Amino acid sequence: MEFEERKKVATNLNIAPLIDVIFLLLIFFMLSSHFVVDPGIKITLPDSVTALPRQEKDIIVFITEDDVLYLDGEEVGMDNLSTELKIKIEDSQKKTVVIKADEKVDLGLAVKVMDLAREAGSEGLVVSAKREYGDAE
């Protein structure tokens, strides 16, 4: 009795469809991601050999919908805001304070924060707003 040789089954994995799916997902996420662009003036700066990049960071005061204050991401009370702002402004070369407040915040609270920033030595105030993308007339 002769033994028959077993047939070998070739097993290989075709990864071409997998790569196609990965590229389709990559394209989908690239097209569907939302890029936030701050509005500004478009200018072309002159070239300079000795120019250095700026290392300054903005001083940002956040006011949430429920009137909670944050200074550079750390929660701070209204009582401590003035002293904390003085410290931040003294340590910073850029003495401008950016206020990012929720649209439902009481105007009186926003004005108090502006006054505290001026008293702390701020040379400028910027009230941040979200740019609305729509049909411009």
Structure summarized in a few sentences:
With 137 residues, this protein is of the alpha/beta class. The chain has 3 helices and 5 strands; from the N terminus they run αβββαβαβ.
Question: Which key features would you list for this structure?
Answer:
3 helices; alpha/beta; 137 residues; Nucleotidyltransferase, domain 5; 5-stranded mixed beta sheet
Give a verbal description of the structure:
By secondary structure, this protein is α/β, with parallel strands linked by helices. The chain has a domain at 59-127: Nucleotidyltransferase, domain 5, CATH 3.30.420.270. It contains three helices and five strands. Strands 3-2-1-4-5 form a five-stranded mixed β-sheet, covered by helices on one side. It is rod-shaped.
How do the strands and helices of this protein lay out in sequence?
Blueprint: H1 16-32, E1 59-63, E2 69-71, E3 74-76, H2 78-91, E4 96-101, H3 107-119, E5 124-127
Parallel strand pairs: 1-4, 4-5
Antiparallel strand pairs: 1-2, 2-3
